[in-house]
Request: fold
Amino acid sequence: MAWFKKERKPRQSLRARLEIPADAWEKCEQCGHLALREKFEKNLSVCPECGHHRRITAEEYIEILTDEGTWKELFTDLRSADPLHFQGYADRVAAACKKAGPSDAIFTGSARLEGAPFNLGVMNFAFMGGSMGSVVGEKIARLARRSAEKRIPLVLVSASGGARMHEGVLSLMQMAKTSAMLAQLSRMAIPYISILTNPTTGGVSASFAMQGDAILAEPGALIGFAGQRVIKQTIGQDLPEGFQTAEFLVEHGQVDDVVPRGALREMTARLLRHMQGEAVPDRIA
Reply:
């Protein structure tokens, strides 16, 4: 009888269901735009909808600003000490090294940008908020001295909450040390470009970060010395809205230009060529 009975078989859908894991999506903190993480990463962690610049790692800035395979890290033997025996400081440094690597709050090294040699320092915000202690100051001073000896440009990328309180006055002395070395570069007419990212505050903004021959900033970056509440309490006046943003500072002459992350590499290379008297293309593509 099975010959006369039609057996129904379940149909298989011609369309394969596309499964996207929940963690594959990223949401912009600024505008709420939702997109695949891959799209954010291809756009250098910049929101494709509103242009909000997320914080990226120091390693990613090194990749953006250097030719592939040319980066060589320098002064890797320097380590933070605990000269004031600040309670819990040694443990915090150990935890930071485990989280962000042993290079302290800045990576320093030499590389090439579009074939030209230069020295590069990139602050590592993941290491205790990019705070400037004795190691950071010493690394910058040595890198500036290397630029002077080899007569090649210096580029520093800042991302910091300021001086490291655990080292007291020793951290504040790094402001003078770095400023003195940068003054030497200025006297020797060796180019120094400072790139400010979010945030650049405290003793870093009050020293080497604001002393570049050219000072560039990423869109929306928080740049200032003290916090808004402290300033308001000190001067007893209301403050303009957004007065510590990169856009406000470029309008008032404290920053030379606000440069989107995607154009940062080309702008830096262009400025270095110009400062060294080399031919510069008519426009940035």
About this structure: The beta strands are 25-27, 34-36, 72-73, 106-113, 116-123, 154-160, 192-200, 214-217, 257-258. The chain is about 35% helix and 15% strand.
